[in-house]
Amino acid sequence: MKKIKTVLIGMGKIGYTGDLKNKKKIQTHYKALNENKHIDLICVVENKKINLKNKKVKIYKNINKIKFLDFELAVVAVPTKDHFKVLKFLINLKQSKMILCEKPFTDDYKKAKQISTLSKKKNKYVYVNYFRRTIPSFIKLKHYLKKSNKVKKMNVFYSKNLIRNGCHFIDLAHFLFGKIQFDQVNKFRKELCLKSNNAFIKLNFINNRKNDNFFEINFDNKTIIVDKKTRIFEKVNTKKKQIFKNSRNEIDIFQKISLNTFIIHYLNKSQRNNGGIYNSEDLLNTLNIIKKSKL
Ligand SMILES: NC(=O)c1ccc[n+]([C@@H]2O[C@H](COP(=O)([O-])OP(=O)(O)OC[C@H]3O[C@@H](n4cnc5c(N)ncnc54)[C@H](O)[C@@H]3O)[C@@H](O)[C@H]2O)c1
Q1: Ligand 1 neighbour 12 (Cβ under 6 A)
Q2: What is the pLDDT of residues 207-263, one digit of tens each?
């Protein structure tokens, strides 16, 4: 089968450097793309000077250099403030058919809406890498929660800030509970409350520079705990057991899993909202909630 010619834009932490020290993990796009049998990574674009061991992959300093290259897929891993201009540039290129962009979609709801409209007009697929949707243990968790129709209460603790990190959990709440909406915000305590038909979600900010996220979901006299290592437990009274054994290992290779999901979806040309694929309404709603919260 013909491989998908791909360009990667942005070779910072999530694009490239994040895996340099760890051989086992696959948490960067460069490594995931290099290891994917459907992908032919033809070049990377990075403003700063970099060296790559794989000499087959060309390095460009300026995105204009890809204007006349033949490729289908572009992966965007530049800082969030630059997503808008890079996405616009790529959507307007004839050859790019599919764009996989890092989260959040853009740094602003209005810009995301413009991109969403432009991509529909030009018939381009733009996916945003909310990778938790593609992790098998989280998909199992979604099905597990669906078994009970009791009201769920989700309590999330996230570090860094809402647009940078909290957005993952707004998206995850969409994934787990369907359409969610802004409820209220306590700016002093930095608490954001959201709700859906059958769930109440509270996002609590914790002042820590590390990626220290964890959450709990309460319903039916039990608690589901997803700890800082992304292990998933069920707790009933004082009894606690791990319910999905692979969750930790899956997070170690999340970029491989999310890329595979996107590729399968793309190759099948499927419009269905299955597995890891969201609809653009969720993407826009996440940014709208962030805008409303003013956090
Ligand atoms: N999915 C996740 O869990 C996850 C995790 C971390 C970061 N991210 C997202 O990934 C994006 C990048 O984050 P990062 O931590 O890797 O940032 P970073 O600053 O480490 O890397 C960004 C790189 O892009 C380069 N760059 C900027 N503009 C460019 C351009 N026009 N052309 C080519 N290169 C350009 C910069 O020189 C830099 O090396 C952000 O949107 C962030 O939110 C997502």
Answers
A1: yes
A2: 987 878 999 999 999 999 999 999 999 999 999 999 999 999 999 999 999 999 999
Number of the ligand 1 atom closest to the C-alpha atom of 129: 1
pLDDT tens column, 36-91? 999 999 999 999 999 999 999 999 999 999 999 999 999 999 999 999 999 999 99
What is d(CA 185, CA 3) in angstroms, rounded to the nearest whole number? 47
Ligand 1 pocket mutation pick from 7, 8, 13, 17 by most atoms within 8 angstroms of CB: 13
Q: How far is the CA of 80 from the centre of ligand 1 (A)?
A: 7
On whether the CB atoms of residues 272 and 48 are closer than 8 A, the answer is: no
For the chain, how far is it from start to end, CA to CA, in angstroms? 47
CB 253 within 8 A of CB 268: no
What is the three-class DSSP state of 207? Answer: coil
Superfamily in which the 4-129 domain is placed by CATH = NAD(P)-binding Rossmann-like Domain (3.40.50.720)
Per CATH, domain 132-254+287-293 is 3.40.50.720: no
Residue 55: CB within 6 Å of ligand 1? no
3-state secondary structure of 79: coil
Question: Can you read off the two tokens belonging to residue 32?
Answer: 């995931």
Q: Which residue has the tokens 């899956």?
A: 250
Q: Which of 270, 295, 288 is nearest to 127 (CA)?
A: 270
- Domain extent listing, the chain: 4-129, 132-254+287-293
